[in-house]
Write a structure and sequence with these properties.
Heterotetramer of 2 MoaD subunits and 2 MoaE subunits. Also stable as homodimer. The enzyme changes between these two forms during catalysis. By secondary structure, the chain is α+β, with helices and mostly antiparallel strands. It has a single domain, classed as Aldehyde Oxidoreductase, domain 3, CATH 3.90.1170. A hairpin with a 4-residue loop joins strand 8 and strand 9. The longest helix has 18 residues. It is elongated, with a radius of gyration of 16 Å.
Length: 154
């Protein structure tokens, strides 16, 4: 499942509730991998006090669903939950949740890493940072997809 939300969310509660609703998972998974990304108060050597996250409704979800589908084909993924925040956010706010349910931990870790890296490098989100001095700037480039090993499938 992929969701884009414009308000704060509790990532651990989202995982717990989703897992309870997915009765088909009961007894099938041996690993749940959870990645939670939060906003930090610095970037490129500057203090950041806020950020506005924009997206292209419909296109963003579709691209995320394609990324999730590719990960599910490449690894033994039973289910996924990806939630991404948009709108105005502040340091320590949760921005993204990637949760993977799999038979084995290796697949869960690798699929989670792949989804997160693809999200950062290919999914249409735009970030405008508000610096501590009230100047603002668009983040020109998301981080490139990063691969620790050839086995990650990136």
């Amino acid at each position: 499942m992929v969701k884009i939300v414009s308000s704060e969310f509790d990532p651990l509660l989202e995982v717990q509730n989703y897992q309870k609703q997915q009765q088909a998972l009961t007894g099938k998974y041996g690993a749940t991998n959870v990645f939670i990304g939060t906003m930090r108060d610095f970037n490129d050597g500057d203090k950041v006090k806020g950020m506005s996250l924009e997206h292209y409704p419909g296109m963003t979800e579709k691209q995320l669903e394609l990324v999730v589908a590719k990960a599910s084909k490449q690894w033994a993924v039973l289910d996924t939950l990806v939630i991404h925040r948009v709108g105005d956010v502040y340091p320590d706010d949760v921005l993204v949740l990637v949760a993977i349910w799999s038979v084995h931990r290796g697949d869960a870790f690798d699929a989670s890493r792949y989804i997160m890296e693809q999200l950062k490098s290919t999914v249409p989100f735009w970030k405008k940072e508000i610096l501590i001095d009230d100047n603002s700037r668009w983040v020109e480039k998301n981080t490139d997809g990063y691969c620790e090993s050839d086995e990650s499938g990136c």
